[in-house]
Amino acid sequence: MPKIQTACIYINIFLVIATVIALPVGKVTRGEELNSGNFVFRHLDNQTEWPSGWAFMLAWLAPIWSIGSFDSCVHMSEEALHAAKAVPLGIIWSAGSACVLGFLTLTVMAATMDPNVSNTINSKFGQPMAQIYYDALGKDGALGFMIVLCFIQYLIGLSLIVAASRQAWAFSRDGALPLSTFFRHISKRIQYQPVRMICGLAVICLILGLLCLINNAASNALFSLFVASNYLSWGMPIFCRLVWGQDRFYPGEFYTGRLSKPIAWIAVIYLLFGVILSMFPTTGPNPSPADMNYTIVINGFVWAGCMTYYFLFARRWFTGPRMTVDDNISTNSDNEISGSVAIGRESAIDTKSE
């Protein structure tokens, strides 16, 4: 899996560089002119019923979604060396590089796309990006780039499964999830991986993916579940630390000093902005049932379900992260794994495997 992740990084960077070079070159080679700087940086084409100012704000949904996986580094922290410093740096580098590469890509796309935005949005291909590639590179070039994009989407899915399985396994290890005893099992035959949790998550993803077959409104609500829930989960502990935890806060290896509190407040405001923004329908204030944003419905169901599970059941046994995992809470087996991991501090682990 590390090799696959490394390959994914290189392919992503290669695709960005290739796109940035190929689109303008292809456009000029076909005898067409690039769009002006005024069109690229100042033109606003409002395709919604919202006022132009709010339509501009809704455009933030794209970067909010694209740079929303900064938490992936955190999910892998228990397997990282010097995690207290490596994980924050990983978040900064991943989000920062995504901002730079994303800005370059969007600038080139705006410079090479059809000035009539409706032609791109309502593309016969069903994908505006495919239309941009087609206009600049022709059929063969567009097909080649879209094949690479589809392959990258598959690799991104693998990355998400890796991060989600590690996070879910940690919660199962701590007894926070239903069927924790079953899912916290790790397999010795497959390099000590949480195979049951990985398979369980894959099945859940397949079931949730069936919602995409209903209509675009259902799929958009499912995708925005990530934005709203992820941003809320990040904002709450930061806010609680600022309001109630100042006296109990001890700086770690990565600390921004006096800038820590202003950065935290900016983060809380931005995360709250992202949560609220994800709830709005993108077409206008009077959407049809097909255009309605059902994010609050799906998120409300998930949040209510989690709270109900905790107050009715989990609060009776879940007290927070476990410092050790011993034989009594491990899966029965003939082999024993002994090691040490860092969970806030170095602690011994004894767990069973296949």
Automatic annotation (TrEMBL):
Topological relation to the membrane, as annotated: Multi-pass membrane protein
Domain of life: Eukaryota
Recorded GO CC terms: membrane
Main location: membrane
Pfam families, A to Z: AA_permease_2
Name assigned to this protein: Uncharacterized protein
Keyword terms: Membrane, Transmembrane, Transmembrane helix, Transport
One MF term in the entry's GO annotations: transmembrane transporter activity
Gene3D superfamilies cross-referenced by the UniProt entry: Amino acid/polyamine transporter I
TM stretches of this protein: 7-26, 54-74, 86-111, 142-163, 194-216, 222-243, 263-280, 292-313
PANTHER family cross-referenced by the UniProt entry: AMINO-ACID PERMEASE BAT1, GABA-SPECIFIC PERMEASE
Organism: Penicillium citrinum
Subcellular location: Membrane
